[in-house]
Write a structure and sequence with these properties.
Length: 138
């Protein structure tokens, strides 16, 4: 059970609301993945950062993923990924360092420099790559 994050927080989607789309996981597997993401990545990052972390995008149905022009194989659709930012923008590099240098496990971390958020993902079990990428596109 997560200390700082909730399923609701990771399922809410402004895009889904705007377009009147249902954005709720349809399997227990997705809820397990979201729990893993919260307990192994988001909670530890929040604890180390010492301030709230804002989830700008968590789980997405296929329809919602299409509406945001997400990758066709997006880990968001599996409940394995979240786009996040710190409460204070000046702490973005601190959050990035915590994720990429201090967390023992994650699959992918992408710093969207110009968009001002970090995409982070984790898979349950084995196969986490610790892949670190930077995106400078607007």
């Amino acid at each position: 059970m997560a200390k700082y994050f909730s399923f609701r927080e990771l399922i809410e989607s402004e895009t889904a609301k705007y377009y009147g789309q249902y954005n709720v996981p349809n399997s227990l597997e997705i809820y397990r993945n979201l729990d893993n993401l919260m307990t192994k990545v988001l909670d530890p990052a929040r604890e180390k950062l010492g301030q709230p972390i804002i989830v700008t995008s968590g789980f997405r149905t296929g329809v919602v993923n299409s509406l945001v022009h997400g990758n066709i194989n997006s880990q968001h659709m599996k409940g394995e990924a979240a786009d996040i930012k710190p409460q204070h923008s000046w702490d973005m590099l601190k959050l990035w360092r915590i994720i990429t240098e201090e967390l023992p496990e994650f699959d992918q971390a992408i710093y969207y420099v110009k968009r001002g958020f970090i995409h982070v993902s984790i898979k349950r079990g084995v196969g986490n790559r610790r892949e670190i990428l930077y995106n400078h596109e607007p």
